[in-house]
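To: structure subgroup
Subject: Chain for Friday's discussion

All,

I'm putting the inputs and outputs inline so they're searchable in the archive.
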Amino acid sequence: METNLQTGTLFVVATPLGNLEDITYRAVRVLSEVDLIAAEDTRYSKRLLDHYGIRTGMISCHEHNETQKALQLITALKAGKNIALISDAGTPLISDPGYSLVTAVAQHNIPIIPIPGCSAAIAGLSVAGLPTDSFLFCGFLSKKKQKLVQTLETLKQEKATLIFYESPKRICALIEQTILVFGDRRACLAREITKLHEEYIRGTLGEILGNLGLRPQVKGECVLFVQGAGPPPKMTSGQLEDLILSKQFETVGTADLARKLSSACDLSKKQIYETILKLRHTPPRH
């Protein structure tokens, strides 16, 4: 057991999303050896603990009592007790309770150790069929339409793959608004990850929405993955010439103007330089 000599350690433990086999040996050991488990819902977590024969006592620690319970748990940690923090499923703090507790514990310089494991965002991303070199976790967006649209507008030019959590009741509304703001991009909807009715719907946002529209209702936890914004369309030769002509009165040398426009237009400096020289030897337009 990894502990500190003066105080106990807070272990942030990832637990299965659905399939109880999706837990690490280390997580089972830590949950068995700590003095106390702070659980989002003790009744829900009892099923997991019973499955692995873990008899450690639990205390509730959820979004409505987390700040209050933090004082109690810090006192126990200072007394040398080791505590594990778990949520109902996946990694605590990732759209789950735990941030207030971890922040408070960190302020007391008490050791905090992650016990990695399941995360719906990462599990779904690995099979979504979308770029994984860069991604942005957006979690749950606002239920209010105006705030939702505002948030989507700020993400419209984001190049990374976007990850949204949403309830089955609101997933169609989220996709509809995303199409209106982003256009019909490639996407993947992951539903009930690791559970009995696990499903992945890949295609454009419009195709996914059409698929869901054929169902009496959508069930299960949903994660929506949306491809990021692509590069802006290349400027045509005519547009480039018009842009160069609009800059003709600037007191900038040919090379400096080519470098400046190359950065702004995502075109090669050589192409722009040659276009500038061509225009200088072409009769002015009338």
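Points worth raising on Friday:
Residues 8 and 80 are 4 Å apart (CA to CA).
Residues 66-78 form the longest helix (13 residues).

D.
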